[in-house]
Amino acid sequence: MNGPAQVLRILPEVILTITGVLIMLIEPLLAQKSSRKPLGWLAVLGTLAALAASLWQYQLPPGTAYFGVVQTDAFSVFFHVLLCGIVLASLLAVLGSVPDTTENLGELFALIVFGAIGMLLMTSAVELLLVFIGLEISSISTYIMAGFRKKSAKGPESAIKYFLLGSFATAFFLYGIALLFGATGTTRIGDIAAALSTGQVSGLVYIGLAMILVGISFKVSAAPFHVWTPDVYEGAPSPIVGLMSTAPKAAAFAVLLRIAYGALPLLHAHWIPLLWWLAVISMTVGNLGALRQLNVKRMLAYSSIAHAGYLLVAFTALSVDGIAAASFYAVSYAAMNVGIFAVLSQAGGFEDRLTSIQDYRGLAYRSPLLGGVMAFFLISLIGIPFTGGFFGKFYVFSAALHSGMVWLAIIGLVNSGIAAFYYLRVITAVYSKPAATSPVNEVPPASVPLMLTLFLTVVTTLILGIVPGRVLAAAKAGAQTYASVNGNGTTVASR
Amino acid sequence: MLSDSILTLTTFVPTAGALVVALLPRRGRVIQWWTLAVALATFILSLHLPFHFDYTRHGFQFEENYAWIASPAIRYHLGVDGLSMWLILLTTFLGPLGVLASWKAIESRTKEFYFFFLLQQTAMIGVFVSLDMFLYYGFWELSLVPMAILIAMFGRNRGPQAAIKFFLYTFLTSALFLVAILWLYSKAGTFDFVELQSRLGDGSLALAPKALCWVSLAFLVAFAVKVPVFPLHGWLADVISEAPTAMAMVVAGKLGLYSILRFNLGLFPAQSREFAPWMIALAVIGLLYGAAVALAQTDMKRLVAYAMLSSLSFCTLGIFCFSVSGLNGAVFQTLNEGLTGSALLILVGILYERYGTTDLTQFGGAAAKLPWMATLFVVTTLSLVGLPILNGFVGEFLVLSGSFPVSPGWVAAATIGVILSAAYMLWMVQRIFYGPQSALVAGKAAGDLNFRELVTLWPMAILMLIMGVASPYWIRAIDGAVSSLANSQVNSVTHTVTNAAIPVAEVKQ
């Protein structure tokens, strides 16, 4: 595809850029006192359009654009749709829970949209420098969002911590790219694979791989690069955490999948042990850490570390199985995590009125709907059948077993058994009688946008658990993109 | 035709009912009546099974088999044989009775209770009808959730702890079970039970014996927790004493025992035989241990819990002696346990509603005030201790006679358990109903069983009698299913219900 038509390959990004710029331009024109929520609805519209554009991209023949730096294929479109869906659900959750009087609300919507652009670019870029630019766009937006509650002590702390550690990790990632460039003379994913398949593999490649892995592990909060997670989740507003804990992670996993299976398939034997250990440590540290938490958001932070571990299990599998399982897991994790943080946003509000597990006692008495939905997402996080959480786990571990990783599967599933304990503690609290003076008694009835978020996430989780066929097929189609790379060492991209 | 979709209907009518419960208003007894209607409808639907069951044919009937997910290859495959059919009927029979037993006991938050109650029905029926390992595992795990939530919500005083204990015991062990299922799938490429069974059986799916041993152990442990088999019974007493009656009635026994029979014996006959001496030993230890602990209890619910442990161990014993009569006895005893145990729990629940305690030391001489109650309590007790003409006798006799030739020493010890069961049960009856009237019984103006309670209990008592005198009606279907399990290594053995069992150990020689 040449000439102006190339823009179709980045259509969702373009739409979101226009939306973000519009929000920034309109915001100063609004009266000082007027509500900024219409800007949020504008962002919702833009995201919907981007989602539609992504779905439309499925019809495009796979191929690259702009001198071969972006590639639209079943893989990138799959993640585009996922990311747009997450952003959409999170925007609705923000709209449903944020008070009208919040300062800088217009900027928040713009930041969400800009962050989304970065993430979309990460998943469609096949040039590592563009991946890096996308990563920076999305990271900087998330750093600012993490500190959005400027007045509370935890907000700035959360942002600074995230920023310092995050920029350190990005530096690792960039350094890794530089080393790969030094070793192979290119930063294009396809060319790297080609260069590695012909010549001697220099030691720099291994160091580069390790550095990239460190950078990505930080972004997906895999242990031992996870320390920022609980503090950041605790300090940021709940609906934002729902976004932060899913979308950037999904994008980073997409990048890792592309690099691992696209650029370095021949080093398979070298990165498998690394990811094996990363997965085991993440699952174990996440679950054991969560056992000790009394604060729900910190508990969910540790749980997200554990879930990053489950997802990493997929990387130890053979290519098609592994990529499909990882992609599917990213979807199911996103649905339930955005959902449960939407529940927290409603129950605790933007300002986190409810924090500890005890505070959630009796939520189901106060609001059967909210309590029931919360229990449903926790059940899905445990991995009970007929929910997306189960099928994701099932698929990941069956992929691992298929390539003979029996111990990894045993460790992983025993871990999921341990995890059941801390999720259950919350479920039983939600279904116990509340104390007379409990803050849970002041939980307001759910607003329409928030109900929409809950509806979207519940339905997605159920679909993934009961009739996952179509999503699985889409994930498999994405995975096929790399099957041929592994086979003959050349990319499938049509140049 | 109804026969083509009867299993789907029976399984999912309760779910549909549950969804309606979620929409019903919390006014009067609307929700109770609706749930009762749904449970009765499910029972009536399930009656289709025994009337259209072909008793002459082995293998699965009323099968439904559709592709569900293309890859991994998961099928929606349902079917019943003589083994699962009666267990489904037991479940659907106990459904309306569970509603009636909860009628007064559950006064607040009825919507949540009956919603989860109906969901639990679906999960349990689903376990019995699933012939795809994935589907089966789905229902198996699903059956934990409503149970745990209801125990947490309606526990008497330490509900949440009991719920978490129950959940973790079962969930942790089924994590390994899932690994085993997935491993089998990675080797065989199918989750279909029938296909797995035939391919493992005829050797076309050759797997390392050591690996198979681990796989079958993972299966066995997961099921044994749910029975429970000694020493995995730690959750039982807490759950029975905390859970609302309708949940306590269904929490133990049938799901685990059925799964052992279907999957352990069905898929891994050789490995199961290797474990058999251990399982027989554990069963007899559980039998005696449960009986001994029951003797020492002063709380009715805990006593019933240990009595259940003891009599469920009987079923385990019957299974692992691999003789036809032992297996028949084990299945029959599973049905008995479901029926008699439930009746006992309902009776204890009624006493608790009347007097607000289950502490045996506070009771005495209640027979004079509650004559009907005493009558039904005694009938149930006699069924549990195995009085001839009642159902318990048939099961115990078949198990003992079937297992004696296999391991005479252990079985001789087991008979002590039978004697002990008479001791603790009759002693409990004596402490509650006879002797001088205690201050509690004399002080409370508690009426005898009312109409609703009589309607709940009489069908059970009558069924105990019918199952005692007309046991062949049940056994002929069970026999067709279990005979293939007993003979899965020795195909030449033929038998009928009446002739004495031929223990496999003898035939082999």
From TrEMBL, chain B:
<feature type="transmembrane region" description="Helical">
    <location>
        <begin position="205"/>
        <end position="225"/>
    </location>
</feature>
<feature type="transmembrane region" description="Helical">
    <location>
        <begin position="331"/>
        <end position="352"/>
    </location>
</feature>
<dbReference type="InterPro" id="IPR001750">
    <property type="entry name" value="ND/Mrp_TM"/>
</dbReference>
<dbReference type="GO" id="GO:0012505">
    <property type="term" value="C:endomembrane system"/>
</dbReference>
<feature type="transmembrane region" description="Helical">
    <location>
        <begin position="113"/>
        <end position="131"/>
    </location>
</feature>
<feature type="transmembrane region" description="Helical">
    <location>
        <begin position="246"/>
        <end position="263"/>
    </location>
</feature>
<keyword id="KW-0472">Membrane</keyword>
<protein>
    <submittedName>
        <fullName>NADH-quinone oxidoreductase subunit M</fullName>
    </submittedName>
</protein>
<comment type="similarity">
    <text>Belongs to the complex I subunit 4 family.</text>
</comment>
<dbReference type="Pfam" id="PF01059">
    <property type="entry name" value="Oxidored_q5_N"/>
</dbReference>
<feature type="domain" description="NADH:quinone oxidoreductase/Mrp antiporter transmembrane">
    <location>
        <begin position="130"/>
        <end position="420"/>
    </location>
</feature>
<keyword id="KW-0520">NAD</keyword>
<feature type="transmembrane region" description="Helical">
    <location>
        <begin position="137"/>
        <end position="154"/>
    </location>
</feature>
<dbReference type="GO" id="GO:0016020">
    <property type="term" value="C:membrane"/>
</dbReference>
<feature type="transmembrane region" description="Helical">
    <location>
        <begin position="372"/>
        <end position="390"/>
    </location>
</feature>
<keyword id="KW-0812">Transmembrane</keyword>
<keyword id="KW-1278">Translocase</keyword>
<feature type="transmembrane region" description="Helical">
    <location>
        <begin position="166"/>
        <end position="185"/>
    </location>
</feature>
<dbReference type="GO" id="GO:0042773">
    <property type="term" value="P:ATP synthesis coupled electron transport"/>
</dbReference>
<dbReference type="InterPro" id="IPR003918">
    <property type="entry name" value="NADH_UbQ_OxRdtase"/>
</dbReference>
<feature type="transmembrane region" description="Helical">
    <location>
        <begin position="410"/>
        <end position="434"/>
    </location>
</feature>
<dbReference type="InterPro" id="IPR010227">
    <property type="entry name" value="NADH_Q_OxRdtase_chainM/4"/>
</dbReference>
<dbReference type="GO" id="GO:0008137">
    <property type="term" value="F:NADH dehydrogenase (ubiquinone) activity"/>
</dbReference>
<dbReference type="InterPro" id="IPR000260">
    <property type="entry name" value="NADH4_N"/>
</dbReference>
<feature type="domain" description="NADH:ubiquinone oxidoreductase chain 4 N-terminal">
    <location>
        <begin position="72"/>
        <end position="123"/>
    </location>
</feature>
<feature type="transmembrane region" description="Helical">
    <location>
        <begin position="303"/>
        <end position="325"/>
    </location>
</feature>
<dbReference type="GO" id="GO:0003954">
    <property type="term" value="F:NADH dehydrogenase activity"/>
</dbReference>
<feature type="transmembrane region" description="Helical">
    <location>
        <begin position="455"/>
        <end position="475"/>
    </location>
</feature>
<dbReference type="GO" id="GO:0048039">
    <property type="term" value="F:ubiquinone binding"/>
</dbReference>
<keyword id="KW-1133">Transmembrane helix</keyword>
<feature type="transmembrane region" description="Helical">
    <location>
        <begin position="83"/>
        <end position="101"/>
    </location>
</feature>
<dbReference type="GO" id="GO:0015990">
    <property type="term" value="P:electron transport coupled proton transport"/>
</dbReference>
<dbReference type="Pfam" id="PF00361">
    <property type="entry name" value="Proton_antipo_M"/>
</dbReference>
<feature type="transmembrane region" description="Helical">
    <location>
        <begin position="6"/>
        <end position="24"/>
    </location>
</feature>
<feature type="transmembrane region" description="Helical">
    <location>
        <begin position="31"/>
        <end position="51"/>
    </location>
</feature>
<feature type="transmembrane region" description="Helical">
    <location>
        <begin position="275"/>
        <end position="296"/>
    </location>
</feature>
